[in-house]
Write a structure and sequence with these properties.
Layout: H1 2-10, H2 14-44, H3 46-53, H4 59-75, H5 77-91, H6 93-111, H7 117-120, H8 123-153, H9 159-187, H10 190-195, H11 200-217, H12 223-230, H13 238-244, H14 246-281, H15 286-300, H16 302-314, H17 316-340, E1 349-362, E2 370-380, E3 385-395, E4 398-399, E5 401-402, E6 405-406, E7 410-416, H18 419-440, H19 443-450, H20 456-472, H21 475-488, H22 500-516
Antiparallel strand pairs: 1-2, 2-3, 3-4, 3-7, 5-6
Helix pairs in contact: 1-12, 2-6, 2-8, 2-9, 2-11, 3-4, 4-8, 4-20, 5-6, 5-8, 5-20, 6-8, 6-11, 8-9, 8-20, 9-15, 9-16, 9-19, 13-14, 14-15, 14-17, 14-18, 14-20, 14-22, 15-18, 16-17, 16-18, 17-18, 17-22
InterPro entries: MFS_dom (IPR020846), MFS_sugar_transport-like (IPR005828), MFS_trans_sf (IPR036259), Sugar_transporter_CS (IPR005829)
Keywords: Cell membrane, Membrane, Transmembrane, Transmembrane helix, Transport
Subcellular location: Cell membrane
Length: 526
C-alpha cells in the first residue's frame, strides 16, 4: 500500500503534485497553527495569569513565576522532540502528529478550567505547570512532524518555498491569539474579563483542535517515508542512529549551534520580547500593545514565504546569516528608539490637559480601613495620554504607618499612544519581524535537508527545539532579569540591557554558521 502511494505520487504531473502539496500544507499548517495558538495564549495572557494562579502579595514575583512557568513549557520541548521524533521515525509522520495535536488541545482547554489560587491555593500553580509541561512535550513532537511531512511531499528545488508556509504558522498562531484576546476584551467589561473572560481563549482552542483532527485523520503518509518503510529502510533505533552515530551527531550539533540557536533568540526578541518591552518597560496600555503587535505581525508574515522562496534560488545559509547579522547590529538602536518615542520629558502638556480625582473603597482585609486612589490623567499636545494611579492604605487616624513611616503607595501608570507614535512603533516592530522571517523562513527546509529520511524526524526536531525552546524560550525571563537588575543598579540605559542575551547568543551562532555551514542547499538525502 505504502509503495503504491509513493509510486502514485512519483507518477503525478507537476500540477497534480502542486495540488496535492497544497492539501498537505493546509492540513499540516492548520494543526500546527492551532498548537502555536494554544502555546502562545499563555504568554499573551501572562500578566493576567500571574494574578490568577500565583500569590498576589508580590506582583513582580508573580509575573516572574508566570514567565518561569511559560519557560518551563519551552524547556521540555526537546524531550518532546526526542519522544515523538522517535515515534515519527518508527511508525510514521501522520499518526505521531495526530497524537501531539490532541495532547496540546486538551492541555490548553484544561488550563482554562483550573480554579484560581484564591480557591485552591498552591494546587493552582502546580496544575498549571503540569499542563504547561504537557503542552511543551506536544509542541516538541508537532513541529518536526509537520515540517518533515511537507518537505517529503515537496519537489527538492521548491522545498524552501513549500516549507515556508509551515513557518508562517508560529507567527499566525501568535497573531490569532492576540486577536482572540482583543475580541474577548472588547466584548466583555474589564471586570468580566478579569473575573472569567480570560478563560475564553483557552476554551475556544478545543473547537479548533476538533476541526484540525478531522482534516489530519484523512491524510496519507508522506511518500518518502512510505517508500523507505516498504523497502525496509526505516530505522530500528532512531535515537541511537541520530545521536549515537558520531557522524550524524556532528550535524545535529551544527544544526543547533550554527543555525537554530540564533534563529530561536531572534524569533523571540522580534515577537515576545518586543511585546513584553512595550508593556512592562514602556507601560503602554495592553489593548494598544495587542493591536500594535497584531498589525506588525500581519504585515510581516508574508515575508516568511518570500525568504523561503528566495532560499531555493540563492541558498538557505546566505539569507539566515544575513538576517542574524542585521539583527545583531540593529537591536540596540531600534529598542532605544522605541523607548524614547514615549519619553514624556520631550512632550508638552496640553492646556487644561491635567485632570485629577480621588476615590476610596473599603480595604478588603481590614474593614475599618480604606484604600484611597489618587487618579491623574495628563494629555499632551501630540495626543499622548498618561494615566497614573497612586493607591494608599488609609486608617481612621490617617496613613497607615509601617516600620516607623507611612506605608508606600502602590503606583501604576499606563500610556495611551498618539496615532503617529503608534504607527512609528508598528514600523519598528515590523522591522524586527522581518529579521525573524529571514532566519525562520528557510530553516525548516535547511534542517530537513541535513538528515536522511530514516532518522529525519528525530534528528531535526532536537536542535530546532533546543534552539527555540531553551535558548529562545528563556529569553523573556533572562531579559526581564537583566533589565530589572540594571534598573536597580541605576544604569542610564537600563532598558537596553535585556538585549545582550539575544545579541550574544546570535553572535556566537553567526560565527559558527559562517565558518561551518555549507553554502549550497543539500538534496543528497532524497
Amino acid at each position: 500500500m505504502s509503495e503504491h502511494h509513493h509510486e502514485n505520487y512519483e507518477n503525478m504531473t507537476e500540477r497534480q503534485k502542486n495540488r496535492t502539496i497544497w492539501s498537505v500544507i493546509t492540513a499540516s499548517s492548520l494543526g500546527t497553527l492551532i498548537e502555536w495558538y494554544d502555546f502562545y495564549i499563555f504568554g499573551s495572557l501572562a500578566i493576567v495569569l500571574s494574578t490568577k494562579f500565583f500569590p498576589s502579595d508580590n506582583p513582580t514575583a508573580a509575573f516572574l513565576s508566570t514567565l518561569a512557568t511559560f519557560a518551563a513549557g519551552f524547556v521540555v520541548r526537546p524531550f518532546g522532540a526526542l519522544f515523538f521524533g522517535r515515534l515519527g521515525d518508527l511508525i510514521g509522520r501522520k499518526y505521531t502528529f495526530l497524537v501531539t495535536l490532541l495532547i496540546m488541545g486538551f492541555s490548553t482547554f484544561l488550563i482554562g478550567c483550573i480554579p484560581s489560587y484564591e480557591t485552591i491555593g498552591f494546587l493552582a500553580p502546580v496544575l498549571v505547570l503540569i499542563l504547561r509541561l504537557l503542552q511543551g512535550l506536544a509542541l516538541g513532537g508537532e513541529y518536526g512532524g509537520a515540517a518533515t511531512y511537507v518537505a517529503e511531499y515537496a519537489q527538492p528545488h521548491r522545498r524552501g518555498y513549500w516549507t515556508s508556509w509551515i513557518q508562517t504558522t508560529a507567527t499566525a498562531g501568535l497573531f490569532i491569539s492576540l486577536i482572540v484576546i482583543l475580541v474577548t476584551k472588547t466584548t466583555l467589561s474589564a471586570e468580566e474579563f478579569d473575573g472569567w473572560g480570560w478563560r475564553v481563549p483557552f476554551w475556544i482552542s478545543i473547537l479548533m483542535v476538533g476541526v484540525s483532527y478531522i482534516i489530519r485523520k484523512n491524510m496519507k503518509e508522506s511518500p518518502l517515508f512510505s517508500k523507505a518503510k516498504s523497502e525496509g529502510k526505516t530505522s530500528k533505533n532512531p535515537l541511537k542512529e541520530s545521536f549515537g552515530n558520531k557522524y550524524n551527531f556532528k550535524f545535529v550539533l551544527l544544526a543547533l549551534f550554527g543555525a537554530a540557536m540564533g534563529q530561536g533568540v531572534i524569533w523571540y526578541t522580534g515577537q515576545f520580547y518586543a511585546m513584553s518591552f512595550l508593556q512592562k518597560v514602556m507601560n503602554i496600555e495592553s489593548a494598544q500593545v495587542d493591536s500594535l503587535m497584531a498589525t506588525a505581525l500581519f504585515l510581516g508574515t508574508p515575508f516568511f514565504v518570500v525568504f523561503g522562496w528566495l532560499s531555493d534560488k540563492i541558498g538557505r545559509k546566505a539569507i539566515m546569516m544575513t538576517g542574524m547579522l542585521i539583527a545583531i547590529l540593529a537591536y540596540r538602536p531600534i529598542y532605544d528608539s522605541m523607548y524614547k518615542s514615549v519619553n514624556l520629558e520631550s512632550k508638552t502638556v496640553a492646556s487644561n490637559g491635567i485632570t485629577e480625582k480621588r476615590t476610596a473603597k473599603i480595604h478588603p482585609e481590614t474593614a475599618a480601613d480604606s484604600l484611597v486612589t489618587f487618579h491623574k490623567e495628563t494629555l499632551f499636545t501630540d495626543g499622548t495620554l498618561v494615566k497614573k494611579d497612586s493607591t494608599v492604605h488609609w486608617s481612621a487616624k490617617g496613613p497607615v504607618i509601617k516600620d516607623g513611616k507611612p506605608e508606600e503607595a502602590k503606583i501604576s501608570q499606563s500610556v495611551k499612544l498618539s496615532d503617529n507614535t503608534k504607527w512609528y512603533l508598528i514600523f519598528l516592530v515590523f522591522i524586527q519581524v522581518i529579521f525573524v522571517t529571514m532566519v525562520y523562513g528557510p530553516i525548516a527546509a535547511f534542517l530537513v535537508e541535513m538528515f536522511p529520511v530514516r532518522i529525519r524526524y528525530t534528528s531535526m526536531s532536537l536542535p530546532y527545539h533546543i534552539g527555540n525552546g531553551v535558548f529562545g524560550g528563556l529569553l523573556p525571563a533572562v531579559a526581564t532579569y537583566l533589565v530589572t537588575t540594571a534598573k536597580d543598579a541605576g544604569h542610564a540605559t537600563w532598558y537596553l540591557e535585556g538585549l545582550w542575551y539575544p545579541i550574544g547568543v546570535a553572535g556566537i551562532c553567526l560565527i559558527i554558521g559562517l565558518v561551518y555551514l555549507k553554502n549550497k542547499n543539500n538534496n543528497i538525502h532524497d
